[in-house]
Amino acid sequence: MTKTIFVTRQIPEVGISILRNKGYIVDVREKTSIPSQKEIMKALKKKPYDAVISLLTDKIDVAIFDAAPTVKIYSNYASGFDNIDTAEAEKRGVIITNAPAVSTSEAVAEHTFALMLSLAARIVEADEFVRRGKYDGWDPMNFIGTDILGKTLGLIGAGRIGGQVAHYAKAFGLKIIYSDVKRNEMIENESGATYFSTPEEVLKQADIVSLHVPLMDSTKHLINAERLAMMKKTAFLINTSRGPIVDECALVEALKNKIIAGAGLDVFEYEPKLSKGLVKLDNVILTPHIASASDTARNEMATLVAQNIVDFFEGKVPANKVN
Ligand code: GLV
C-alpha cells in the first residue's frame, strides 16, 4: 500500500521531493500559521496517515496519538523534541525521530556568536542610532562596548551545539569553562575547556554564559533569580536553546536592575509571547527563534526528516530515532 504522510507546515522542498520520489503521497498543510492541536487532529482524521512530519511548535501528545492511530512515526523537524510526549509514544510503539543536522549545530553556534558579538559591540543600539539620524560625526566616547578576546565563556551544556560553540570560541581567543551532566573530553582536548560538575561555578566565573541544554523537567528554569545573582554584573547571557530554561520574569528583573549586563535571546519562555518589560530593555537583543535558520541547515534538516521516514518504511532503524 502506498504510504501517506502529513506535513504540518511547509518545509524545504528537498525533503518533500525525497518522499514523493519514493512514490509516497505527501500532504503539506497549506497555511503558514502555527496549527492548533485541534487543527492537527482534524487534518489527521481525514486519511489513515502512516507518518507525520511535525514541527517544534506542534504539541504531539496523547490527544494526537488517539486521533491518529494509524500513524507509526512522527519525524520532528527540529533538533529538540520537547514538543513530543516520547514516553507515551513508546508505550504505543510509535517511533519518534528528530533532525540533529550537523549544519544545524554550526548554524546555532554561529547565531550564538552573532548575539555575543552584537552585545559586546552594541551593534543593534548603534544601528538604531544611525537609522534615527542621530549620527553627527565620529565621537571618541560613542558606543564604547567591550571586547571578547581573553574573556571567559561559560557553556551550560556541551553536547553537539555547545561543542561547536567551543570550537569557534577557541578561534576568538576565549577561555572556555563548561558544565554538563557528563564531561566532553573532545572539547577539553580541542579547546582546552575546563569542566565543572555543576553550573554554579560556571555562572560565577564566566563573562559570557551560553545555554546549550535540552528542555527537560530538570532544566526548566535552570537559570532563575538565584543563579542570575551569581553571575558577574558585567556578564552577558545567551540563550539559543529553549525559552523555558530561563525564568524570563527573573531575567527581565535582572536586566532592569543591572544584576547582569545584557542578554541575547533567540528563544522565549512563552514564545511567541514575550514577558512583560522585555522589549523595553536596551540591554537585550531579541531574535525570533532563527538560530538554525541557515539555508544549509534547513535543507539538511528537511533531508533528515524525510530520510528517517524512508528508512522506517524500508524496515531499517531510522538514524535519528529518539525513543
Ligand atoms: C530548533 O530550535 C531546533 O530544535 O531545531
Which terms would index this structure?
12 strands, Rossmann fold, alpha/beta, seven-stranded parallel β-sheet, 15% strand, globular, binds glyoxylic acid, 323 residues
Fold and architecture overview:
This protein is of the alpha/beta class and 323 residues long. Helix 1 runs parallel beside helix 12. The longest helix has 19 residues. The strands form 2 sheets. It has a 7-stranded parallel β-sheet with strand order 8-7-6-9-10-11-12, sandwiched between helices. Strands 2-1-3-4-5 form a 5-stranded parallel β-sheet, sandwiched between helices. Glyoxylic acid binds next to loops.
What are the SSEs and their pairings?
Layout: E1 4-7, H1 13-21, E2 25-28, H2 37-45, E3 51-55, H3 62-67, E4 73-77, H4 86-92, E5 95-97, H5 102-120, H6 123-131, E6 152-156, H7 160-171, E7 175-179, H8 185-191, E8 194-196, H9 199-205, E9 208-211, H10 225-230, E10 236-239, H11 248-256, E11 262-265, E12 284-286, H12 295-313
Parallel strand pairs: 1-2, 1-3, 3-4, 4-5, 6-7, 6-9, 7-8, 9-10, 10-11, 11-12
Helix pairs in contact: 1-12, 5-7, 5-12, 7-8
The structure holds glyoxylic acid.
- State Rg: 21 Å
Bound molecules: glyoxylic acid
Helix/strand structural class:
alpha/beta
Q: Widest sheet: strand order? A: 8-7-6-9-10-11-12
* Record field, number of beta strands: 12
